Amino acid sequence: MPSPAGLHANPSMNRRRFLLTSVGSGAALVAVPAFAGWLPTADAKAATGAAAFVDDYKTNVVANQTPETNAVIRVLGGFAKVWKTGGAWNTGTPLLPEVLRANMRYCARITAARTDAQAKESFIIDRQHQSYSVIAGLGPLADLYKSGAKAVTSITSAPDGTPAGKISDALPADAPAGSAIGAGSYDSELGNVAKLVDTVRGPFASGNPAKFAFQYPRPWRMNEDSEVVDTGEKDEFGFPVYESEVVVAPQLLRQRSENPAEDGGFPSGHTNALHLAALAYAYAVPERFQELVTRAFELSHTRIVAGMHSTVDVLGGRVMATALAAAALTDPANAELKAAARAQALAYFAEHTGTTADTLHAYAHSASAGTDPYADRDANARTVKPKLTYVLTRSGRDQPLTVPKGAEVLLETRQPYLDAAQRREVLRTTALPAGYVLLDGFEQWGRLDLFTAADGYGAFESDVTVSLDAAAGGFGAADTWRNDIRGEGGLTKRGTGTLTLTGHNRYHGGTVVEDGVLVAGSANALGQGDVRVVGGTLRADKVVRVRGAYVQEGDTALDLLLRKNHGPALEVSGRVVLGRGSVLSLRVDAERPPVAGTTIAVIEAQRLRGQFDRVELNSDTLRAVPVYTTDGLSVRLLKR
Questions:
Q1: Domain-embedded: residue 213
Q2: Between β-strands 599-604 and 570-572, what pairing exists: parallel, antiparallel or unpaired?
Q3: Per-residue pLDDT for 174 more than 90?
Q4: DSSP 3-state of 625
Q5: Is 197 part of a structural domain of the chain?
């Protein structure tokens, strides 16, 4: 029998095209010749002229199982370059056997290295309502959410061995009145948030139509080698015994489906549900956006650890969830609900934490790694990055991404100070490169990297103007861009709010501060061009470098940190021009404070022209006397 993994299968075999269709009103499914003749290898080409996914997502129902009729199958069309569906669950043909071989080897290696604790965790995630599982990504807000939403679960632990029968999440007998499993009760203080999660995971968000269409088997039904060998034996649970190297967690052996034709692996339904829930929560609680995205990636990985899904299954689940979440959040029918959910979450958490829109973010990140597993942003990035592509390798040339219609809504509450076009640029400039098979399907939803996009632009390919309003509160008033920004464009900062740049930036178009505060949070935050401060304040918490010229004029401030035994706080490769009205505001470093009687370098430049109107120092014991030279500025510190 040809292998589902097909590692040595003859591509000329299995030329008949098949389609799983519903029979009557029941749930039974049978394989029949495809009357319309959809060939999976057609992928996105079959959808030429098709409607945008966000306008067509409601076609994702079991009755539609071709890329021409189903928007989800269309966006998953990249998988059709890897796998050609056969007439039955075990007769498909690999089109890229090297990808599927790597896929199976990865799964076998992961399940072989699985610990007992990981097996138990994978059981909990498998059986627990996915919307509940994601709540832990809220960190210090998680318990408050559960209480406010009346969200409960009956799956809180895993057995040591294999349970006697099927187990499902249900309302616990001791649950408080009005509780609900999953995201919680609509009749609660966070009812709108719970409803938003359920709406994003609504009736058009199932992975089953795609499973039936692609018929790619789960890893435990396949062998890494050339054939799936049915030994003729059955295990104690009645399943045929195959020579497979992927071992299912013992706690899940009785939880498996008994019908392989109705139990395809691609795409992973759990992964789809987990990412949908995470993106819905992230819309309502953007203060934990990256942490919720990380949580979804981490939980999805347990599907591989459990032996229940393969890497390509998990990738497919994430791709479809990204598109489906955007579609539901873009749908005008949900506009009132999503706004109400965001407002409700902000008001509830502010009230119960004693914070405001401006301070909630700090509270949401106040826990240590000991109590919040997502407290370390860099660790989160290390968790997410390899899971964006898993075993896939790149081939071919990179191609610019046209961001799918509506995708910008996914950043709507996380970057409310940007307009839709700007959020699309953020998504485009932080996206994965082209060339990853499966991720390059129709509209290329798989290339979006939401974790990185939450940290702002990846490039200024043209000039960018951003305006933050201090009165807007939350991210509308202050945000941090952590990416390393490249490109030929420049940045203009407007508005009364605060923007912080922390990356090793290489954009060439220069930086202009017109209003509010721009914070240089790293030595190379200001890129490669000139810097002009014509309004507001430029602040640096570390030594900062300007690769071009530095010009400050008008009613403006340069705010620098003054340290003992340290080089100049501002290093300028070109000239410095100081105009009338400009102020130098110096802060004494609390950890390494300079002492009276010393002279501290502040600005070093190729040439300096002009002077500050005044020099301020935030010290009750010291005063700063400026010392100007042709190539810089120092201050002599004297006792008051």
A1: no
A2: parallel
A3: yes
A4: strand
A5: no
